[in-house]
Structure formats: structure tokens, C-alpha cells
Specification:
By secondary structure, the protein is mainly α. The chain has helices spanning 7-13, 15-25, 35-63, 67-82, 92-111, 114-120. The protein is extended, with a radius of gyration of 20 Å.
Length: 135
């Protein structure tokens, strides 16, 4: 409702229900990982947690070879930290920051290729040894 600019309309329409719900919540909103359980039950909540884990793991794996993915991973980590108290993933600060990261990376990559050059020169190469490597 926030993104469609209809939140004030629905706040008036749903005022009696929101007042009753506010007593249950104790003032505030459900945390990020609680919302799917409230909306979709146990099965939907578990499926959502698995999906979130998959997406964050994918971003983590890409962060090892991409500066942009590392910045996005940092934002997701901070959002998970803040989301224990609210729905920070739907907050405009989080979404604007992701848009800003994407825009700057697209601008730098298109104009100068700086992101690719840094990766090709080995600046962001892992220093860990593989399991089968001998010393």
C-alpha cells in the first residue's frame, strides 16, 4: 500500500481493525521473518525462510567475485539486522540504497570498466587454499 500511495486511504478504512490488531502487537509491526507465518501459516513461513536463505546465500557467493554484490550483501545483512524489529526490507531507505548501488555500478562499468578491471587484476581474489592443495 505504501508503494501505491494508498496507505492513507486504507488506514482510514481499516482503522477499527488496526486498533484491535494494535492491542495484539503491542504497538509496532511484525518482524520480517514473522510476517510469512502470520500471513501464510507454518508451511508458507518455512518456505519463505528457505527462499530467503537461498537468495542471501546466492548473493554471498557472488560477493566473493563482485564489488557490487559485496555492497548488496552488506545491505541485506544490515536489513536482516534491522528487520528483527520492523520490515526494513520494504523501507524506502533500503530500496533507494539498492537502486543507488545498481546505478553507480552501471555507470562505472559502462564508462570505465573499473569494476571488471579490479576483478581481473586479482584485487578481490580469495587467498584461501583449496582443500586438496599441498603446502
Amino acid at each position: 500500500m505504501f508503494f501505491t500511495l494508498t496507505d492513507s486511504y486504507f488506514a482510514e478504512v481499516l482503522a477499527p481493525t488496526l486498533a484491535q490488531l494494535d492491542r495484539v502487537l503491542g504497538g509496532g509491526e511484525f518482524p520480517f521473518l514473522t510476517v510469512p507465518f502470520v500471513d501464510y501459516g507454518a508451511f508458507g513461513g518455512i518456505a519463505f525462510i528457505v527462499l530467503c536463505g537461498f537468495v542471501i546465500r546466492l548473493i554471498y557467493q557472488r560477493a566473493a567475485s563482485s564489488v557490487v554484490a559485496a555492497a548488496v550483501y552488506g545491505q541485506f545483512g544490515a536489513a536482516m539486522l534491522f528487520s528483527s524489529h520492523s520490515l526494513y526490507f520494504t523501507h524506502q531507505n533500503f530500496l533507494f540504497t539498492l537502486l543507488l548501488i545498481w546505478g553507480i555500478s552501471a555507470l562505472v562499468t559502462r564508462k570505465h570498466g573499473a569494476c571488471r578491471t579490479a576483478i581481473e587484476n586479482g584485487i578481490f581474489v580469495s587467498r584461501r587454499r583449496s582443500k586438496g592443495a599441498r603446502v
